[in-house]
Amino acid sequence: MAFTLLPKDTSFFDLFDQLAGKVLDAARALEEMLERWDRLEARVREMKDLEHECDAITHRTFDKLNLTFITPLEREDIHELASRLDDIVDHIDSTASRLVIYGVKKPTDEAKLLAQVLTRTCIEVQKAVAGLRNLKDPALLSRISVEINRLENESDDILRLALKRLFERQNGDVLEVIKLKEIYEKLESAVDRCEDVANVIQAVVLRHT
Amino acid sequence: MAFTLLPKDTSFFDLFDQLAGKVLDAARALEEMLERWDRLEARVREMKDLEHECDAITHRTFDKLNLTFITPLEREDIHELASRLDDIVDHIDSTASRLVIYGVKKPTDEAKLLAQVLTRTCIEVQKAVAGLRNLKDPALLSRISVEINRLENESDDILRLALKRLFERQNGDVLEVIKLKEIYEKLESAVDRCEDVANVIQAVVLRHT
Amino acid sequence: MAFTLLPKDTSFFDLFDQLAGKVLDAARALEEMLERWDRLEARVREMKDLEHECDAITHRTFDKLNLTFITPLEREDIHELASRLDDIVDHIDSTASRLVIYGVKKPTDEAKLLAQVLTRTCIEVQKAVAGLRNLKDPALLSRISVEINRLENESDDILRLALKRLFERQNGDVLEVIKLKEIYEKLESAVDRCEDVANVIQAVVLRHT
After folding, report:
1. Quick check: is A4 in a domain?
2. Residue C161: is it exposed, middle or buried by C-beta count within 10 angstroms (0-12/13-18/19+)?
3. C-beta of residue B79 within 8 angstroms of C-beta of residue B16
4. pLDDT, position C1
5. How many domains, chain C?
6. How far is CA A205 from CA A80, A149, C76, in A?
7. Would you say residue A2 lies in a domain?
8. pLDDT for residue A10
9. Which domain holds residue A137?
């Protein structure tokens, strides 16, 4: 299927921008939750609302796919990209919920640091998604991809340090080790999911250049 | 490659139906194992047999791909779909085996509930696979996909509740926490693998409509 | 895009061979680390160097993709294959680093056994990657794929035995259980990543035969 960019199709890009915006909202909400550590139950509910809004946008994207004859990108790429963006929010929502379910006493500096890197990565994801409107600049998307890869390496380094400290400083509270280990891993895994989005976008670019 | 449905090719759909049937058999066997909690070693062996049968069907599918010139779906989609169906059974088999390896004392209500949702999801997977024979009704496949997504959300809610209770009710038996946590997560992950199958099928539909 | 094998394009295959070679180097380095259990910090640094070299080759592959007009395989397949090979090294590097971060006292026989299977699987991956140069022999690639699948089953069996022994023989040292469980699972997961590479290669073969 050849690449055709018709004005009437741009609304797929609008839906992607909305999704990427919600992804970034979720990352910032998680960072704030860890920073302020108040209104926990309310924050989890707000995050769940964000997650449902993403589901709704994703389903609207799928429905639109079924009703649109000519799409600006391959149909399966649109499906894949929406699904992968939705995955990021699922991971962020799951992290927020685990923090409360597990009754984590106080978020560690390492958890806050990981959440900060996640927010920075979601900003790059938003840029990459916006860049899809104009595939004429593959070099820009390639640079964003390299930056997302760099941030993923950074989050992996923080995870390693966090796990090292977690095991060194535990005071026999093994349950707290299990809980924080999962929180750290989920945060790092959310950054990995951002890299998945970057990979889908790179594949789209490669098919159209 | 255009969509061509020749009579001689329908046996790929037969192989898919067989696979989806074994997937459902495995889900039901796991649900029954958790419900009755008897003949554990025998049940694990029976599950392993089911898993081997799935491997055999999957390999038969791959061999057939290498010998068939015109296929009813893209060759790589056939490969992907068989692989993803096989993944579900791997997860179910792995859960059954962990239950025995870990010497889990008694399955919890939450584990049983997750296994029930898994069975219901595998019934939808079977419907979706059957629906592939007739891609003329994308709306049906779309509805099944939405239902699988709903069941995945349901299993995620049960997982959260299960983890909450697990950590609240533990009596210092941290090993039991580690074991049950993995069982719960594997059950939920099996439902996620069903969603992967739904995604592959959606992508096939999108390419053919 | 039709399959064209032009002499000037063979360097993509050279890059793949380099990557597969580094993957095997990493697997062997991990096996040696577990066997000798000396110079741990130095070995982790050497592994990190290997990982960076793989990143560099992967990025060189992506840059070359952006500069090459006619590629010997679909552009997105080249991207996918390089990414999946890189994933294997990430898993191996992560395992080596966890061994030291966690201060694992002494590697178990099961960890060594898993590392041996991983090395054998990486040898098959190298063969499969080399086989890509000549897609005229799909039967060879199919046989390698079956062998990788067999090795993945073997590593899964070892993992089950390892977990069984880990929980049976623990002497109340739950933290050691958590650490070794993750090491075992990461080793097995590295073999799974090899299977992902085999799947990508199978998909490429299917598109070209």
Report:
1. no
2. middle
3. no
4. 41
5. 1
6. 14, 17, 9
7. no
8. 62
9. 10-207
Where would I find the H helices in chain B? 11-36, 40-67, 75-101, 109-131, 138-169, 174-207
Amino acid at site C158: I
Inform me whether the C-beta atom of residue B174 falls under 8 Å from chain A C-beta atoms. yes
Domain membership flag for residue A68: yes
Instruction: Report CA torsion sign: B163, B167, B171, B176.
Output: positive
Q: Which of A142, A177, A203 sits opposite C178 (nearest CB)?
A: A177
Residue C169 identity (one-letter amino acid): R
With an 8 Å Cβ cutoff, are C167 and B174 in contact? Answer: no
Assign residue A118 the CATH number of its domain: 1.20.58.220
Answer yes or no: are the C-beta atoms of B182 and B91 closer than 8 Å: no
Q: Suggest the residue from C65, C76, C180, C181 to mutate for an interface test with chain A (most A CBs closer than 10 A).
A: C76
pLDDT tier, C12 (very low <50, low <70, confident <90, very high otherwise)? very high
Which residue in C44, C87, C46 sits closest to C193, CA to CA?
A: C87
Residues of B within 8 A of C146 (CB-CB) are 59
**Cross-chain residue pair C98–A181, CB shorter than 8 Å:** no
The interface pTM score, or ipTM, of the predicted complex is 0.90
Answer yes or no: is B182 within a domain: yes
List all chains that touch chain B, counting a touch as 3 or more CB pairs closer than 8 Å.
Answer: A, C
Residues of A in contact with B181 (CB under 8 A): 178
What single-letter DSSP state applies at residue C186?
Answer: H
| pTM for the model | 0.92
